[in-house]
């Protein structure tokens, strides 16, 4: 997330109107004291606001492309794995999924029936937003487990990620695996890097050392996110 290692002592106390640290059920939690609903706009929604065109009379004639992408307010950007050739039936069902409305990831998950298809799509949106908020658009599976109960993620989370292989990419499936947001990568590199990452790369190059991930997590044998 780009937070300093000592954020609990150096950052949180400076903003008591926004944050506090409390013990809940024997565990230390970071608590948001004030909620501004105007900030509840996901990275997906921000991206779509830049590319969506105003509604037109031909809007209903728009068809999903063979790569699975669909220009709509409820759609996700996808990139199917190499060699995956969806047939017409698959694309038709996927288009229905892309068009389907779903609750905001910023709403309380306890309000929805986990078996509802819209709630299941919301889980994808939660994972998408979580990864979008990270500097490197990726988290380890162990890091993701820390959010499992809080976000009411499905018990078979790995199966959910695999099912949506056009949105997420997983290396070394298991406790030491890493989940990537595919749209954040072009090949093996990030498409957009935050200032902190750019500073790190510059610092490392000046030291004459090889690049080191701020997440302390290296890509194994699979270096291409496709």
Automatic annotation (TrEMBL):
It holds the Pfam family PORR. Residues 1-210 form the PORR domain. Transmembrane segments: none annotated. It comes from the Eukaryota. GO terms for molecular function: RNA binding. Signal peptide: none annotated. This is PORR domain-containing protein. It comes from Brassica carinata (Ethiopian mustard). The lineage of its organism: Eukaryota, Viridiplantae, Streptophyta, Embryophyta, Tracheophyta.
């Amino acid at each position: 997330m780009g937070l300093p290692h000592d954020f609990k002592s150096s950052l949180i106390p400076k903003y008591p109107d926004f944050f506090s640290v409390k013990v809940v059920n024997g565990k230390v939690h970071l608590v948001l004291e004030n909620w501004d609903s105007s900030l509840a706009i996901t990275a997906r929604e921000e991206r779509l606001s830049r590319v969506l065109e105003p509604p037109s009379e031909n809007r209903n004639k728009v068809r999903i492309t063979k790569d699975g992408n669909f220009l709509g307010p409820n759609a996700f950007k996808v990139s199917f794995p190499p060699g995956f050739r969806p047939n017409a039936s698959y694309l038709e069902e996927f288009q229905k999924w892309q068009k389907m409305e779903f609750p905001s990831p910023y709403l309380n998950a306890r309000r929805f029936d986990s078996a509802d298809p819209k709630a299941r799509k919301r889980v994808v949106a939660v994972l998408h937003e979580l990864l979008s908020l990270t500097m490197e658009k990726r988290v380890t599976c162990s890091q993701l487990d820390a959010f499992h109960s809080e976000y009411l993620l499905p018990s078979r989370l790995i199966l959910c990620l695999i099912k949506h292989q056009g949105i997420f990419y997983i290396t070394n499936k298991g406790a030491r695996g890493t989940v990537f947001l595919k749209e954040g990568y072009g090949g093996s590199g990030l498409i957009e890097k935050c200032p902190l990452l750019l500073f790190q790369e510059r610092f490392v190059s000046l030291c004459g050392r090889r690049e080191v991930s701020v997440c302390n997590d290296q890509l194994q044998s699979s270096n291409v996110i496709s």
